[in-house]
Design brief:
Elements (H helix, E strand, L loop, with lengths): L9 H14 L2 H13 L7 H13 L3 H10 L6 H13 L3 H14 L4 H13 L3 H13 L8
Length: 148
């Protein structure tokens, strides 16, 4: 694209970030993200931020993923917190997982998926009492997975 002097846009960068995330190209993804902002002057949108959190989170860079969220110039939604919570579950980071779940459940208190992810984070480190508390809340709120 650069050789052809074609200027990339939001969609171009989102595609590149997604590809980097799915192929484990963390350094390259960070370079793409930085060039989008500083070389091409494109302000990241929520999709770009979410993709970066997913990229960093998949490969255990949870503090860096949280830093992306904290530094965002737009309000983080459930998708971005959900990406971080999923990474906390995979990498068994209970402290950050609980913090992230709290943010998520403030945004969407009746989202069964977020309750389930929190339960998985707790279970991954053997906090069965906490798992039971989450399940009790789900039962009290009558939260059930909807059939597809």
């Amino acid at each position: 694209m650069q050789e052809e002097r074609i200027k990339p846009n939001n969609v171009t960068f989102l595609s590149l970030l997604s590809a980097c995330s799915h192929f484990g190209l963390v350094r390259e993804g960070c370079e793409v993200y930085n060039s989008m902002k500083w070389i091409f002057g494109i302000q990241p949108n929520l999709d770009h931020y979410t993709c970066m959190v997913d990229l960093l989170g998949r490969y255990g860079k949870l503090k860096e993923a949280l830093a992306i969220i904290v530094k965002m110039v737009i309000f983080p939604d459930g998708r971005i917190w959900g990406a971080l919570l999923a990474a906390c579950s995979v990498h068994e980071d209970i402290k950050l997982g609980e913090y992230t779940a709290k943010r998520l459940l403030e945004l969407e208190p009746d989202n069964i998926g977020y309750h389930t992810l929190l339960s998985h984070v707790q279970a991954s480190v053997g906090h069965w009492g906490e798992v039971e508390k989450v399940r009790r809340v789900m039962t009290e709120k009558d939260l059930k997975k909807k059939p597809r």
